[in-house]
Amino acid sequence: MLEPAYQADVVIVGAGVAGLSAAHRLTSAGVRTAVLEAAPCPGGRMSTEKIDGFRLDRIGQLLSTSYPELRLTPGLDALALRPFAPGVLLHSDGRRQRAGAFAKPRSARGALHAVRALASAPRAASVRGIPGQTTLPRVRASAPLGTAVDQARLGAALARLAIAPVERLLARPELPAAQALAERGVPARTIDGFLRPLLAALLCDPELTTSSRCADLALRAFASGRLCVPEGGAEALPELLARTLPPGTVHTGVRVTSVATTSVTTAEHGEIPCRAVLLATDARTAAELLPGLRVPDFHPVTVVHHTTDEPPTTGASLMLDADRGGPVAHTAVMSQVDPSRAPAGRALVSSTVLGTPPSDIDTAVRMHLSRLYGTSTARWETLAVHHTPEAVPAMRPPHDLRRPVRLLAGLYVCGDHRDTSTTQGALHSAHRAAAAILADLGAAGSLHRAEPLRAAA
Questions:
Q1: Cis? peptide before 173, omega within 30° of 0
Q2: Where is each Amine oxidase domain found (predicted)?
Q3: 310 found inside a domain
């Protein structure tokens, strides 16, 4: 029997970072691949709006230089990352304090030295002699990080996390993150003053209902790397992946209406036969195409962008509100982190609101930013307010960090809803899905370029 004339070996539905990175792995293995995207351009939720020379992210995902998949994903070799200043700025009771800015250990021996040095002075008012470690000042017990003892213990815990094997973290008992931290003996002031606002920025979950295993992975990434963003906006990552794929691989403006193991049906081009289908859409779209797939809860995210010609004096720092004294969870002068995001002479301030935003969000955010930055925001210009109701899939326990990507032979699914709800998770799920497809296809596949899509009859 003759095989049908496949237009592609694998059809990927969705041109977000998961679908594009899977396409890179498949095409690198010689598999003819077609990526179909309903939107006018690739990128999915990692999109950037351009207004008068400003580059405004819609969700404002934070990356980490320690994400393994940023190094392992084909096509991302040229990705430029702009790091924030080390650690974060905590705002509490009208004051700002830098936290988490200890030296990132380059080896297990270096981390062990840091842990021992930090733990060796439980009664000291300051810790000295640790490479890259700033002296801990005498602080009030009610300060965001508590006493010097609390700070030393926190630094030791983060240093241990930086070198902890992922398998060990995943073997820990799973609880909601807030409960797990409390049961580990972490002081309440350290949880509420530092870990809660930090994890809110990393996971978009200010109530810490996220699985403790996912929270541990997020803290490990923070402790072993630097928070960063793609140069030029979030869209730079998917744009780079799309641009470096073989010509004719990505097709935008193509809406898939149904999927099977050997074909997809589109509104514009009819049925497209193939050997396998990979769903790389968001969780809700995937469930619409394959009823029965679980749709998780989501964390809504609102990003408010302002501009001013008098930038606040916080440098390239990510600032968190330890007091939770307003709607803003975290904020940064993004033009000082990445100058390409604003025209010369203008500053871009991007602020993230988690949960349901207030009705008069711009006024509430301005008032909060005025307290956080210690300056008037009355003359700041609002550039955009981006609200995404289903921005980040929730990861409440029990959360399967390695949800199956192979549904059955010929049908696969990937995305941040199959792993961790981060860019790292999306890329890693694509890695797993591509490996499963290649294993099921057996041979490397055809080396020929996919044929152009035909119009529906």
A1: no
A2: 17-438
A3: yes
Q: What is the pLDDT of residue 153?
A: 85
Angle at 120 between CA 116 and CA 121, to 5 degrees: 140
Q: Which residue has the tokens 């929730």?
A: 394
Q: Looking at residue 103, what is its pLDDT?
A: 62
Pair 404, 278 in one domain: yes
Side chain identity, residue 354:
L
DSSP for 85-119, written as a single string: SSSEEEEETTEEEEES-SPPPSSHHHHHHHHHHHH
* 283 in the same domain as 206: no
Question: Which parts of the chain register pLDDT below 50?
Answer: 1-5, 108, 111-112, 114-115, 117-142, 443-457
pLDDT of residue 7: 77
* CA 413 centroid distance within chain: 19
CA dihedral (119, 120, 123, 127) in degrees, to 10, reads -80
Residues 179, 215, single domain; the answer is yes
The total number of structural domains in the chain stands at: 3
What six digits make up the tokens of 367?
């008032």
pLDDT score of 381? 98
Distance CA 44, CA 48 (A): 10
